[in-house]
Specification:
It is a single chain. Helix content is about 30%, strand content about 30%. By secondary structure, it is of the alpha/beta class. The protein has one domain (about 1-274): Aminopeptidase, CATH 3.40.630. Strands 1, 2, 3, 4, 5, 6, 9, 10 and 11 form a nine-stranded mixed beta sheet that branches. The longest helix has 17 residues, at about 110-125.
Length: about 270
């Protein structure tokens, strides 16, 4: 069963939920979670609404046995740029200011990440969402401790766009693709570059890569062997390669990172050679 997660505290989440109900036929199944009706689309897909902020939803496995949790979320950015985004979750360093635990990553679902990014890109063109950026984000925020695969699909980046109907339709379409995509297969993890992982977007959209956890340049010098091993093992499918944004890291980053990747048994591949 795939479980779609929305939150009472998230305006974008409620906009996306409305689209899912009105356009995809989600309806109450008679059960409740945290006081809100559980909505069903089929025997294999349900939608729940939590009273928590979604980054603090490490409790969901106590209530649901799911194949994947797909979070319908807002994105907030100081740039205020409208955006359609997808990413895995985790904390790649010693801080956990936005849910989860330090030095811990969730179970990434690269197949769902790729499916969502591809559909968001299609919907941007189909719905003429020219003002929106479509992008992967690197691994960040909670929840981190669930052992069920997680993907966040997000509508951003300010309250004006959290209620944007066409943007919510694009996110809803991507989420529904995630409910049907298989979880297994070959995947890669990524290192280097910025928070909005433009080099890795190209690898997914143009070359068909399935990419899970990604660590940006600003986190590289804090990475440990244990954390890199988590990035590999807490990924659905199997990971043998680490793709590095070669120009998106400096010599100090490479000196710290590459011995760790080698010790973890990963093949190091430059982005231009991928």
């Amino acid at each position: 069963m795939r479980v779609l997660v929305t939150s009472e505290k998230d305006i974008a989440s409620q906009t996306i939920k409305r689209v899912l109900v009105n356009e995809y036929g989600f309806s109450p199944n008679g059960e409740h979670f945290e006081g809100s009706p559980i909505l069903s689309h089929s025997d294999s897909t349900i939608l729940i609404t939590t009273g928590r902020d979604m980054i603090f939803c490490d409790h969901l496995e106590s209530h649901f046995s799911a194949e994947a949790f797909i979070f319908c979320s807002r994105h907030r950015a100081e740039s205020a740029k409208p955006a359609l985004l997808v990413h895995s979750t985790g904390n790649l360093g010693s801080e956990a200011l936005f849910g989860g635990h330090p030095f811990q990553v969730s179970v990434s679902a690269p197949q769902l990440v790729a499916a969502a990014l591809k559909r968001l890109s299609v919907e941007k063109v189909r719905q003429t969402l020219t003002e929106f950026d479509v992008s992967l984000e690197v691994t960040h925020h909670g929840p981190t401790s669930l052992n069920t695969p997680i993907v966040f699909v997000e509508l951003g980046s300010t309250e004006e766009y959290w209620t944007h109907d066409e943007g919510a339709r694009a996110v809803a379409a991507a989420i529904m693709d995630c409910t049907k995509e298989p979880l297994l297969g070959e995947a890669v993890i990524g290192f280097g570059g910025t928070h909005y992982a433009s080099k890795f977007n190209r690898l997914v959209l143009e070359k068909g890569y399935k990419i899970g956890h990604m660590a940006p340049k600003y986190s590289l010098n804090e990475l440990t062997l244990d954390l890199v091993k988590q990035m590999v093992t807490r990924t659905t499918g199997y990971v043998k390669k680490a793709i590095v944004d070669w120009k998106g890291m400096n010599a100090e980053n490479k000196e710290h990172l590459f011995p760790i990747l080698t010790e973890a048994g990963l093949q190091i591949v430059r982005d231009k050679d991928a």
